[in-house]
Amino acid sequence: MTQSAIPSPKKGRQLIDEYFIETRHRVIEIAAYLDRLDRSGDPATTSDFRSGALREALAVLCDGSYPRVDRIQMIFSDPTTEPRAELDQKAAKGAFDPEQEKG
Asked: What is the pTM of this model?
């Protein structure tokens, strides 16, 4: 078992008892979202940078390596460090678009 910087105040079974139904709901919502994308028949859904980020995040969820939350948050985050000349709408898109940086 992996040690955390902040240990959980609850045991594993207590965490499952408290959060399983809520987490199950979220997984079903993700599956429904992906099914809607598939039913749209639009090939752009697989090439969109947000879909790519989501697929990458889902792979992290399944890889079994700790810590997942830090790695997933970085997938969606803007890795640039230089200030922008003007504001854009990238924050409203929910994921970083690497193509936008190429300009």
From this structure: 0.76
Residue 75: both structure tokens together: 């997938």
Pairwise CA distance, residues 98 & 101, whole Å = 5
Alpha carbons 3 and 5: distance in angstroms, whole number: 7
Radius of gyration of the chain (CA): 17
Spatial contact of 94 and 50, defined as CB atoms under 8 Å apart: yes
Q: Concatenated DSSP letters for 38-86?
A: HHHT-THHHHSHHHHHHHHHHHHHHS-PSPHHHHHHHHHS----SPPSS
CB atoms < 10 A from the CB of 57, how many?
A: 18
pLDDT single digits (tens) 7-64:
878 888 999 999 999 999 999 999 999 999 999 999 999 899 999 999 999 999 999 9
Q: Scanning the structure block, which residue is given the tokens 């207590």?
A: 14
Q: Which residue do the tokens 């099914």 mark? A: 35
